[in-house]
Amino acid sequence: MACASDGRMIQSGWENGMLRDITLGQYYQTDSVIHRLDPRVKLGGTLLFIISLFLFKHYLGYVIAVLFLGIVIKLSHVPFRFMVRGMRAILFLLLLTVVFNLFLTPGTELVSFWRLTITWEGLWMAVTIAVRLTMLIIGSSIMTLTTTPNNLTDGMEKMMRPLRIFKVPVHEVAMMMSIALRFIPILLEETDKIMKAQIARGADFESGNIFKRAKALVPLLVPLFVSAFRRANDLAMAMEARCYRGGEGRTKMKPLIYQRRDVLAYLIIVVYLAVGILVGRLVWLWI
């Protein structure tokens, strides 16, 4: 009974852990303006938003980015808690990046203790990196949460079509990227099932140092790789059975056509980018 109780406690801990917190690649079913936008608009908008995060140098630029992202989240009708939940998976990476920038950036001393020194420049860099990574993850999650895998594939294929001049297999590349994104939640679900089975057999993934925990993951990784290869083989056989031969000569059941709302969305994205850059330049000139 004690073993069963411990197993349930460990299982419960993992169920509430990082595996279920990864939202990248998942699609949230609802009806909103963002869901109805052309996938090319969402792909291009996400790319421009990420670029803007590295172009802005003043805190007012980040304020504008936060307001823009908040409006998009509100229009998407996706619960904010669902998006923030995806941040828990990269929390360790985020903290590690912040700590390195905080203590290893030279500049004007702010606080010093033992051999560690925090500078004003390091503090600004750490806060900037944290804000950038947070908005980057949430902004990218909005794209996958509001776009089906099929639409995402069509959008990527359309946007990469000019690369055909350089003999790039655009359709195949878009298909691979879409399948990779689609497999993320499937593999996470498979990992959760295998982990529960291993816990029921007495496996312990939480106790011990980092080396013992890594060794305990071996019984988890082997069946996970076997399952991944099996699913990939099943998918390949299904595509062969349906006479899939790549993108040459294929037609679309629902071809992508720009609507008025898509043009308006493009204009809003361009205005957001222009305002953010303009505010940064004006503040720079004022200083």
Q: Topology, pairings included?
A:
Layout: H1 2-15, H2 33-36, H3 39-55, H4 59-76, H5 80-85, H6 91-104, E1 109-113, E2 116-119, H7 120-145, H8 149-159, H9 170-200, H10 210-216, H11 218-241, H12 260-286
Antiparallel strand pairs: 1-2
Helix pairs in contact: 1-9, 3-7, 3-8, 3-12, 4-7, 4-12, 6-7, 8-9, 9-11
Q: What does this 3D model show about the protein?
A:
The protein is mainly α. It has 12 helices and 2 strands. The protein has a two-stranded antiparallel ribbon with strand order 1-2. The longest helix has 31 residues, at 170-200.
- Strand % is under 5%
List unreliable stretches of 5+ residues. 1-18
State the distance separating the first and last CA atoms.
69 Å
Radius of gyration: 23 Å
Which overall shape is indicated by the principal axes computed on the Cα atoms?
flat
Please identify the structural class as seen in this structure: mainly alpha
Order of helices and strands: HHHHHHEEHHHHHH
Q: How do the strands line up in the largest sheet?
A: 1-2
How much helicity do the residues have?
A: 55-70%
Overall pLDDT score: 80
Q: Tell me about the largest β-sheet.
A: 2 strands, antiparallel
Count the E strands. Answer: 2
Q: What's the number of helices? A: 12
